[in-house]
Structure formats: C-alpha cells, structure tokens
Design brief:
Elements lengths: L5 H7 L6 H9 L3 E3 L2 E2 L11 E6 L2 E7 L16 E3 L3 H13 L12 H17 L1
Antiparallel strand pairs: 1-2, 1-3, 3-4, 4-5
Helix pairs in contact: 1-2
Length: 128
C-alpha cells in the first residue's frame, strides 16, 4: 500500500463527501486509531482499524488498500471493510425514530392528524 494520508483515504472511500470535511473530522477528534485521535496527515497502513464518528453513528472501518483516486460506491469494499456492529446501526435508527418526522411536501398536520400523533405519543410515553 502506498503512503496515503488518513483524510485523503476517508474521502476516497466515500466516508466523507469532501476532503476538507474529512480533515475537519480528524482535527475535531472524530477519527480514532486504537482509541487515540488521529491527525489528518497520518499515513495509513494495511489492516489498521479506525473508529469514525459520522453524526450520531460511530463507524468502525478497516483499511484494506489505498485507491489511486476517489472510487465509485460499488468499488469501496475493495479498499475498506465495515466492521460496525448491526446494533450501532439499529441504535442510530431508533434515535431518528424518536423524533417526529414528516416527509417533505406533506405540509402541516391537520387537526385530525395532530390528535392521532398526540394519542400515539401519550400511548408510548406512559410505557417508557
């Protein structure tokens, strides 16, 4: 594996949309190697396992190889392995379900919709 900076690698394997976002994440302490923060200039090695905080998700990835440039989504598994447990994805999904969410373009809830929402909130709020 050739010498590739961690911020560039995170961008190339599509964990971050831009390289500057990957650099900012490294500087903010959201990328860790063996529990310690990683600087954006650190060169990665084969089989290193990184912990990357992306929003509420704590993603664990293993570096398999370094691509020459940013790769398409179907080719990402050749360069990194996702070791994140399914429980972590479920936890983030549950966090998103806790908040009231309406699809875009649906508009404000009607009086009937509001009553149904309040009923469901009260029903599940008493069990918690």
């Amino acid at each position: 594996m050739e010498n590739v900076r961690i911020d560039k690698w995170l961008w190339m394997v599509r964990l971050f949309k831009t390289r500057s976002m990957a650099t900012d994440a490294c500087n903010a302490g959201k990328v860790k190697l063996n529990g310690t923060n990683v600087k954006p200039s650190k060169n990665i090695k084969t089989d290193e396992v990184f912990e990357v905080h992306i929003g509420q998700l704590v993603k664990t990835v293993k570096a398999l190889d370094a691509p020459k440039s940013r790769v398409g989504a179907p080719l990402v598994p050749q360069y990194c392995e996702d070791l994140t447990p399914q429980e972590e994805y479920d936890r983030v999904k549950m966090l998103n379900m806790r908040f009231e969410k309406r699809d875009r373009g649906e508009g404000r809830p009607t009086k009937r919709d509001r009553r149904q929402i309040d009923f469901i909130k009260n029903l599940y709020g008493e069990d918690e």
